[in-house]
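May I ask you to comment on the folded chain given beneath this request?
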Amino acid sequence: MIVDTNVNISRWPFRRLAGDETPDLVARLRQRNVVQAWAGSFDGILHKDIGGVNARLAVECNTYGKGFLAPFGSINPKLPDWREDLRRCAQDHRMPGIRLHPNYHGYELKDPVFAELLHMAAASGLIVQLVVSMEDIRTQHPLMRVPPVDLSALAEVVKSQPSTRLILLNWWPALREQRIAPLADAGELYFDLSMVEGIEGVARLEEQLPPERVLFGSNFPLFYFEAALLKVQESGLPETRKTMLFEGNARRILPPKAA
C-alpha cells in the first residue's frame, strides 16, 4: 500500500495531462495501490482567488475521493486576506495541511511573513508543504521561467518555529544531498522523493537522513507515477524500509482518518 504525499488536481496551465480530471486521477492512483493521496491544486499556483481555489479543492476531494484524497489548501501570504484563507483551510474545510509556492507567489523565505505563516499553521495543527519547484526549468515555457525556491534561509526559520511540521516537495534541484542533513537537524522537516535522481538515489538519500524523514511523493499527474515507484523498487532497501517509505512515515504524520 502507498500513501502519496504529492499529487495535484485541476489543470496544469501549460498542457493537458493524463489524470488531470479528478475522477480519472483517483482511478489511476487506486490502480497503482495508492490508498491515500495528499492533494494540492494546480490552480493555487497562479490564481489570485485563493479562497475559491481551496473551496473547489475541498469539494473535489470530498466528491471524488472522500477518505482517499487529503486536501492541502494553497496559501499566498502576499495576498491581503491570506490569514483568513489559512483559517478557512483549518476550520471551514477541515484540511490537514497547506501547500506553499514561494517562487510563484513572489516572496523569499527570509521574509518575516513566512515565519508568521509557519507559526499560524502550527498553531492551527496544519502540516505545511513547501514546493521548491514544479518542474525542471529546462522544460518550462520560455516566457514563464520560474527558478527553484532559494532555501538558504530555511534552517534558521525552521529553528525559530520548532512546532511546525514541514515537508519539502520537489526539492532536489535546489538542495541536493550535501545540504540535507543541516536542514533535517533544524526541526521536524521531511523530504519527498519525486525529483530525486541517480541510480539508487533513494538509498543514498536514506543514508543522509533519518529513515522516518523520507516520504513517497510522485508529483502526479505532472510527473509519471511510475517514475517515483521505480525509484523505490530499485533502491535495494530492505522491505521494512520500503514499507516505511511507501506508507509508514506518512501515516505517522497524517493518520488515514484525517483524509
